[in-house]
């Protein structure tokens, strides 16, 4: 690593409203000469949308278009191989920028180390160039704010689970926790509804938390969940 | 509720560094004529410390001094009664301010709806005056950023548990999760160390995440955990 290497900043943008990014993230985004962000091919991308209007006039953008999303099943070895090659390519580009002395801001929705794709760059870059992470407000925090009720009280246990888990395991975990957050709902909505019912509980679904389309409904009332949706069961712990 | 009622803002300050509060929180804090915050009697208080240097010259401060912390056991009915009376008093004061047309910013460390004391005001105030919540970066997000490793990957399940749980239950939950966050360590450090060992795992302890005294060590190496400490076990899920 050269002494003059630039830094790759993995910057958490928070849940989707520009004023919910941290002051540190705001400064880094506004000052960046180089930004990079993931997006679905052919789409503007949510991360890029959040920073619209904040960028330098001379900013250089590096969009990273996912080569696959749902076309190949997750358990198909081609899925991992295709994504690994994609992350390698992206990391190679960012590493070259940093080794050339440039700082780069990688935009990350929510928090960079809480699920999400930045982590796959982080593992590939951090052995070679300086990488710094700016934490962000995770989408779930905006979801429970939107719900109007605290998520955890006193000694409550919180479980965060993806709806991609097998239905029986999902039901077991829902029964075994005080408070619950479920992400990655999309195609798994019906499975999640059955698992919540099997656990004898009720949940709310928060769609587009902290975005203009924000909506909160009982999970049972929902027929179709957008990608930006999070299910919640609120804890009921000690409350003097 | 009068049409001219002010709003009580529960503002998440994030993990402890002023530039990790959101842009929205920053604006509310800097513009506030009235602020309120919890603190241990006789101490400056962490929430107040975070906003030092940001307040209006004519700000009116309402410190809320906890009447008890560890002097009365949590399961003693006097604990709940004493705290309930305290929260009632605080809420009465804030409600009067709002009903008199004043906006009030209640400073909340981390995120206002994720554990913490603001929730006890929220339940008492929201039937009577407008209450708005600004989510914040939870302390745990700064802790995993400090650890230098992502907390959750792919379909990892994350469990957030207080170290106050019975040791056997703590061990069971640690064994049954991919990624783990443990809060409220303090006096429960030895119990936590035993529970992590019983689950056959290893953890790191992050002290003072995002603060100048930040330190990350293997949990086993720690003899005494300060109040601001969080234990982590990182997930090991899918990573193409």
Task: Please sum up the structure shown.
The structure is a homodimer of 240-residue chains. With 240 residues, chain A is of the alpha/beta class. Chain A has 7 helices and 10 strands.
Write up what this structure looks like.
The structure is a homodimer of 240-residue chains. By secondary structure, chain A is α/β, with parallel strands linked by helices. The first copy, chain A, contains seven helices and ten strands. Chain A has two domains: 8-134, Cobalt-precorrin-4 Transmethylase, domain 1 (3-Layer(aba) Sandwich); 139-233, Methyltransferase, Cobalt-precorrin-4 Transmethylase, Domain 2 (2-Layer Sandwich), CATH 3.30.950.10. The first copy, chain A, has a five-stranded parallel beta sheet, with helices on both faces. In chain A, helix 3 (77-99) crosses helix 4. The model of chain A has no long low-confidence stretch (mean pLDDT 94). Chains A and B meet through helix 1, helix 3, helix 4, helix 5 and strand 6 of A and helix 1, helix 3, helix 4, helix 5 and strand 6 of B.
Distance between the termini of chain A: 55 Å
Number of strands of chain A: 10
Globally, the shape of chain A reads globular
The most extensive interface, with participating residues per chain, is: A-B, 65 and 65 residues
Looking at the overall shape, the CATH architecture of the largest domain in chain A is 3-Layer(aba) Sandwich
Average pLDDT for all residues of chain A: 94
Order of helices and strands of chain A: EHEHEHEHEHEHEHEEE
Assigned CATH superfamily of the largest domain in chain A: Tetrapyrrole methylase, N-terminal domain
Give the CATH topology of the largest domain in chain A: Cobalt-precorrin-4 Transmethylase, domain 1
**Strand order across the largest sheet of chain A:** 3-2-4-1-5
- What's the helical proportion of residues of chain A? 25-40%
Q: How many strands, what sense, and barrel or not for the largest sheet of chain A?
A: 5 strands, parallel
Radius of gyration of chain A: 19 Å
Q: Beta-sheet strand percentage of chain A?
A: 15-25%
Protein structure class of chain A: alpha/beta
The figure for the number of domains of chain A is 2
């Amino acid at each position: 690593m050269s002494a003059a290497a630039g830094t790759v900043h993995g910057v958490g943008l928070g849940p989707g409203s520009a004023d919910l990014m941290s002051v540190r993230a705001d400064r880094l985004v506004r000052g960046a000469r180089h930004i990079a962000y993931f997006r679905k091919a052919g789409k503007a991308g949510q991360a890029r949308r959040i920073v619209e209007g904040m960028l330098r006039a001379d900013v250089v953008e590096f969009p990273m278009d996912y080569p696959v999303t749902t076309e190949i099943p997750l358990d198909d070895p081609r899925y991992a191989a295709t994504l690994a090659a994609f992350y390698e390519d992206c990391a190679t580009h960012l590493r070259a920028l940093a080794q050339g002395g440039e700082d780069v801001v990688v935009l990350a929705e929510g928090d960079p180390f809480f699920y999400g794709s930045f982590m796959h760059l982080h593992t590939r870059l951090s052995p070679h160039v300086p990488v710094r992470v700016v934490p962000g407000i995770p989408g779930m925090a905006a979801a429970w704010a939107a719900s109007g009720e605290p998520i955890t009280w006193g000694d409550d246990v919180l479980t965060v689970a993806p709806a991609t888990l097998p239905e029986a395991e999902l039901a077991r975990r829902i029964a075994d926790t005080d408070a619950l957050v479920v992400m990655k709902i999309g195609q798994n909505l019906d499975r999640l509804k059955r698992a919540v019912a099997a656990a004898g509980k009720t949940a709310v679904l928060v769609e587009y938390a902290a975005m203009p389309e924000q909506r909160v409904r009982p999970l049972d009332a929902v027929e179709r969940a957008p990608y930006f949706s999070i299910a919640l069961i609120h804890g009921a712990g000690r409350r003097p």
